Amino acid sequence: MNKTKEATLNQRIAMNIETYKATPGLDRIPAAERYATYRATHKRLMREDEAYRTRHNQYLSSVIVAAVVPGTIWLGSSVLGVVASILLSLIPAAAIVFLAFRQQHHMNQCIGSALHLESHQSIPNGRNA
Questions:
Q1: In which region does residue 73 sit, left (phi positive, over 0), alpha (psi from -120 to 50) or beta (all else)?
Q2: For the chain, what are the domain ranges?
Q3: pTM beyond 0.70, yes or no
């Protein structure tokens, strides 16, 4: 693979991995306050928004189940059994990573919506107060 294709592939992969910094509307907040604002909004949504809280709790439950289930499956102490057990433990690990990215995307969208609503509520009649 040449360097241009590799760089493009790496860029696509990096663009698909979301962090809290990808939250819509967070860029309007001073950089030093962004994480604190994100966390405060997340905590408020956990208290006030039942659907958000339920989805977050389902995510945590899924991660716990995916982390515990592989430990209950043991295919024997033979070499083939150990290899199969190790390979089967990679499936839940991949599932946990997938769930984490999906949850981060959901949180970003919900928190971005909440920030958008807050910004519109603090500006009466469309003008700065």
A1: beta
A2: 31-117
A3: yes
